[in-house]
Every structure is written in C-alpha cells, then in structure tokens.
Write a structure and sequence with these properties.
The chain is of the alpha/beta class. It is built from 16 helices and 13 strands.
Length: about 375
Amino acid sequence: MKKVLITATVQSHICQFHRALIEMLRETDKDVVIHVAARDNLAEKNGLKLNFADKVFDVPFERSPFSAKNLKAYRALKKIISDGQYDIIHCNTPVGGILTRWAARRCRRKGTRVFYTAHGFHFYDGASKKNWLVYYPIEKLFSRYNDVLITINEEDYRLAQQKFKCPVRHIHGVGVDTRRYHLAKAGEAAALREKLSVRDKAILCVGELLPNKNQAMIIRAMPEIVRAVPDAQLLIAGNGAEKSNLEHLIEQLHMQPHVRLLGYTLNLEDYQRACALSVSCSRREGLGLNLIEGMLSGSPVVATKNRGHNELVEDGVSGYLVENDDVKALEQSVIRLLSDDRLYDRFSQKGRETALRYSFEAVKKELKDIYYGS
C-alpha cells in the first residue's frame, strides 16, 4: 500500500486538474491512500467538491510567495508531512510547490519521492524581466528538492531540461475527461441550446475573470462580430476580480443583448456542446485546458498566441491564432469560422484529433510511466 500527499495552493486546483493523477493511482494500487493539502477555496467555486481524496487538510497558503502568512502554512504543512510518513508527495503551483519541497527535505532523504508539476512557468519567451529575475532563480533553486519535475508544455520542458539539474518529464496536460467532453449526439446540441438559451452561433470563453485571461478582448470584438453575424452570442464562464470591469465594458459597448457572464459553471460540458466556437484571449497560458475541452466537443478554436495555445492550435489548420490585443484579427477569425461551414467542419475535425492526445487515458499512461516506469 502506498500513501500519497498531493499539495497545491488552493483545493480547487486539485479538483480541476488532478483527477487523471488520482484515477491512475487508484487503478494501479487499489489500496493506495491519498491525502490532499491546500487552502479551502471551494465556497468560491459554486459547489465544486473535493470528494475523491481519503483525507483533506485545509492549509492557509497565499498565492503570493512573499506573503508572511505562508509561514503559518509552511509550519502546518511540515507537521502534516512529518506525521503522514508518505511514500510519494506530488506538489503543484508556485507557492504550493516551493513550500512543499522545502518542508519535505528531511523525509525525502529517508526515501519519500517528491514530484513537482509546473503548470506553466512564470518565466518564458516573452515574459517580463521581473518575472525572470524573481521566478526563474526560485524555480531553479528548488528543482534540486524534487525527484522529478513534470512540465505540461514543450517550451517549459526544453527550458527545464537545459537549465535545471533534475530529471524532467513532459506530459500532455492534466487530462480531459472524454466522458464529459465529446461530440454532441444527433439533436443533442439543439436541445442543449434551447435548454440553456444559447444561440446557434454562440462563442464560449472560459476562465477566471482576471487581467491575464483578457476577456475584455473578445468583448471588444463583439460589436463587429454581431454586425457580420447577427445571431452571434458570447458566453463567458468563470468568476473573479474583473467581473465588474467586464460588466461595465459590456454596457459601454451596448452588448448586453449579446454577451452573458455565466459565473462559475459546473455543467461546462453542456455549454461546450451547445456553443459553436471556443475562444481564449489569455496573455499567458501553461496549456489551455478550456480549449482542449472545446476541441473535444467539436468546437473550432480562436486563441491568442502564447506558449500554451501555440502548442495546441495549428494556425489555419485546427484553429486560428492571433496576436494579443489584436481585436481586428480576432473579429475576422471568428466571423470567418461562423460564416464558412466547410472551413468550420475541417477545423472541428482536425482540432478533435489533436485534443485526443490530451485525454485522461493518454495522460494517465504518461503519469503511470513517470511513477512506476523504470
């Protein structure tokens, strides 16, 4: 029997991004014991439940690595690790990864294996000098305190291999459940559109309402999109600090009849099958789980250029890539796909073929090889 601890800054991260890992562990060892340590933020996520762990510790991590409150989190985590006597510790997120690896130093010397998944380094080609000066030295230093560093995109993988002195592995994201995200059956999409009040030419944009996710870009594109495609509609799924700013922008552009903020959505798979397109305007993305979900559901993609999107989308083949804040290019790409059925079908098929590489089953095989391979 193995005993495993999974850590991250917040519990929603574990819920959303580590089902493939937990499924793999339970399928491989039916007696495995899985504990989770992260700050309980589930009340903010509209009923999201962490119901697949044997024990959950509420650890008061703060997102900022410089917050003094993380000293309390570190002490709590160190006690959990000392008492738990874990065979494996798998840490995630910058703060969760740093504090966990530091707290696990002693038990690692006694044989505990420590894995760290980087869900997108804050330093990358095109990142600010500040990010390189702050985050790169920290990640390089702490890489010596894990047995394996796991990356979810090729750019991070190449950089870590070249710069860090630890084993580095690459996996195809965190896995997407093809039982939830799949092509709509005959008549299903129309029924879902009626049930959810979604138009035929609906565009879905998924992500926390934060400056990095840049939902304002697609909102600014909507007046021109609606002029060209009157049945167009934008649905934005997620919650966050930018909500009031986005609401103000929608009112300013008189787009209330064409744009809906859905909030945090537990039935996202229904919206994916009901909507025609998936759009992401993120300035920075480790991979882009929401786009994979859309592609598996048959939606062509329009996305901004960044390392995560560039890895998923072949421009002009499985979707369109546009420059950050190039609203005109975004408008043109969306209008083209909503107006050309043959192009739409071609992108839909190619995108789905690409997305299958990022399924639960594919990622579970990769994780099993990392955990149990020779």
